[in-house]
């Protein structure tokens, strides 16, 4: 709806200030409208769309981790980067520089893919640009779009995200549980979930270089080299 219009009386499309919560959306440059659109949801959480009702129907499931969001429901978060360098995101084969087939993440998920790259580099202490809270919320909403028929606007209107579950989503995106197991098996140490990955063996001095890749441990270089298969 392009505005809370009381004349909209059709079932399922109506304006009722007493039972609905409305928010104005930012202008969309790709849509020619005279007024910014509005999005309304029921003020009763029990009447709002659920994860099950918004789930995409796919012939093949996308490997995911369940994360409890703001509605107390479990939502499936796709693994954007597995520990072995593969991805659960939909991919397509394209012609590489030499004309040979190269697997690449579909265009609509490139932003999410690059977010995962940045998250891994930040964990390794090799990230050059910190990810703001606003950007992290945006990418968490983008992750939800893989398995659900939602945009960032619906995610915000449904009040699904907060700081703790955004961290859980970010950890699911980069397969943090398996990454932590790998780090443990190879005698490396993971710090706090909001801190960085220690890129040195416990018998060595910690890596403190900022804005550079950690080559000594092999973890960062190994993680980064895996992206060559599917990076844009």
Tally the beta strands: 10
Spatial separation of the terminal alpha carbons = 36 Å
Strand order of the largest sheet: 1-2
- The share of residues in helices is 25-40%
Rg over C-alpha atoms, rounded to the nearest angstrom: 21 Å
Overall body shape: globular
Element pattern in H and E: EEEEHEEEEHHHHHEEH
Give the uncertain stretches in residue-range form. Answer: 189-232
- Determine the number of helices (DSSP H or I, runs of at least 4 residues): 7
**For the report, how would you describe the main beta sheet?**
2 strands, antiparallel
Oligomer: single chain
Please, what is the average pLDDT? 74
* Protein structure class: alpha+beta
Report on the architecture of this protein.
With 232 residues, this protein is α+β, with helices and mostly antiparallel strands. It has helices at 51-54, 110-123, 133-147, 152-157, 163-173, 176-185, 219-226, and strands at residues 9-10, 13-14, 20-24, 38-42, 64-68, 74-78, 91-95, 101-105, 189-190, 197-198. The strands form 5 sheets. The chain has a two-stranded antiparallel ribbon with strand order 1-2.
Structure in a nutshell:
The protein has helices at 51-54, 110-123, 133-147, 152-157, 163-173, 176-185, 219-226, and strands spanning 9-10, 13-14, 20-24, 38-42, 64-68, 74-78, 91-95, 101-105, 189-190, 197-198. The protein has 232 residues and is an alpha+beta fold.
């Amino acid at each position: 709806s392009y505005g809370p219009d009381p004349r909209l009386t059709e079932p399922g499309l109506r304006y009722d200030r007493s039972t609905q919560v409305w928010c104005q959306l930012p202008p969309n440059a790709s849509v020619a409208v005279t007024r910014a659109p509005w999005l309304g949801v029921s003020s009763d959480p029990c009447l709002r769309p659920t994860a099950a009702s918004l789930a995409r129907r796919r012939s093949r499931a996308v490997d995911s981790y369940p994360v409890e969001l703001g509605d107390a429901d479990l939502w499936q978060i796709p693994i954007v980067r597995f520990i072995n360098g593969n991805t659960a995101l939909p991919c397509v084969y394209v012609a590489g520089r030499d004309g040979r087939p190269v697997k690449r993440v579909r265009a609509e998920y490139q932003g999410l893919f690059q977010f995962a790259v940045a998250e891994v580099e930040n964990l390794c202490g090799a990230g050059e640009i910190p990810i703001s809270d606003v950007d992290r919320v945006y990418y968490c909403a983008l992750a939800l779009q893989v398995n659900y028929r939602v945009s960032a606007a619906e995610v915000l209107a449904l009040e699904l995200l907060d700081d703790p579950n955004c961290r859980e989503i970010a950890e699911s995106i980069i397969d943090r549980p398996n990454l932590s197991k790998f780090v443990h098996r190879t005698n490396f140490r993971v710090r706090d979930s909001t801190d960085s990955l220690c890129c040195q063996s416990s018998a060595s001095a910690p890596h403190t270089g900022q804005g550079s890749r950690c080559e000594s441990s092999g973890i960062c270089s190994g993680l980064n080299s895996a992206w060559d298969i599917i990076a844009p």
